[in-house]
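Below is how a single chain appears once it has passed through the pipeline. First comes the sequence as given, then the structure the pipeline wrote out for it. We keep one example in the README because the format questions we get most often are answered faster by looking than by reading.
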Amino acid sequence: MITWTPTVKDYNAKLRRLEQNADFAKNDDNVWFRGITDPWVPQYSMDDFNAHFQRDNGGAFAPTSEIMSKVKNRPNSEADQAAYRWRDRMGSEGIDLSHGVTTTKVYTDGDPKLPITVYTPQMSDPDEELGAIVAYHGGGWIGGNVLVNQNFCRYMAEQAHMRVFNVDFRLAPEYPAMAGFDDCYAALNWIVDNAGDLHVDLNTVAVYGDSAGGTTAAAVAYQDRKDGHNYVTHQFMAYPCLTLDHDVAEKIDWPASKYHFNSVTKERYDNDQLFVGKGMDTLRQVYVGSQNVDDPRISPIEIPDDIMAKMPQALIAIDEFDPLRPQGYLYAKNLAKAGVNSHSMCYYGMSHAFLDKFGIFAQGQHFADTAATWLHQGLTGQTK
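Resulting structure:
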């Protein structure tokens, strides 16, 4: 339940201020980087909308997804129970900012038949072929669902004038790796194979995800390149997790002192520990299980150099008070090092999963607008 939203006037004023930030510029890492700040928010402080939402957020939004509603027997170890508690705390409701977008549902072939929610923008010819965005929701591979990211997806369909396919996939601990990844990769290939019936223009096929969904988007792009398909033309994501290897993560992640926390931002950061410490231990047990944690489909930091050089162009959003901030930027940096056109944006004053609050935090709309421009016109330093 949404219990607080900014006024329309305040929301639009913030969006205008965000739009006034300087354009992308190539930095020493060869990443086209852009910092997004609200000049009304003091440095190293939480955005005022974000701070208000932390005080009055209406609780989690964690309905059971269609595909997970069919589970009959759930594993019940101590680690499994920890995962279910994480799941129940996840998600937030957002606001639908789209106009004229229609929602339908399709199901893939095979076993399981994956539910995919399709968002189609308003157009005079409903059979017109449009580019595709294949979306994967966040939730640490143990939670989340297509209802959390639906408002972002709807808005992207309208702004980018593309068909958005929001994939419902299996989750751990009921379905450990690689079940969820296999679902997500199968969904991409099914959409491509059925492009004619789905009215998809294969000249533009983007994968998108937030948090663990961003990791999955990168992993799907990797597998697409490894298999030699080259279907994916773009990858864009927000605050992805790059590795579930403790030793590797310790070399990437920042010490708390580097974030310049105050009491408010530190409390929010401490609540976002799924991908570090005990949270990562849980994911290693219930999601990774017997799989190799260094498999690039689990930890995209392990994508080999020869495939990294073939990866699709990227747009990666990170945020200031997020344990995954350094990992998201490192992915942009690694892509740029391999010669891939790589853009990254850091939303200052924000914390992990800010896109869940789409339509409440203007930063979400700003990222969607930027992504829509990137998909069709390109950004500074990018050629279509």
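Residues 179-193 form the longest helix (15 residues).

See the next section for the split statistics.
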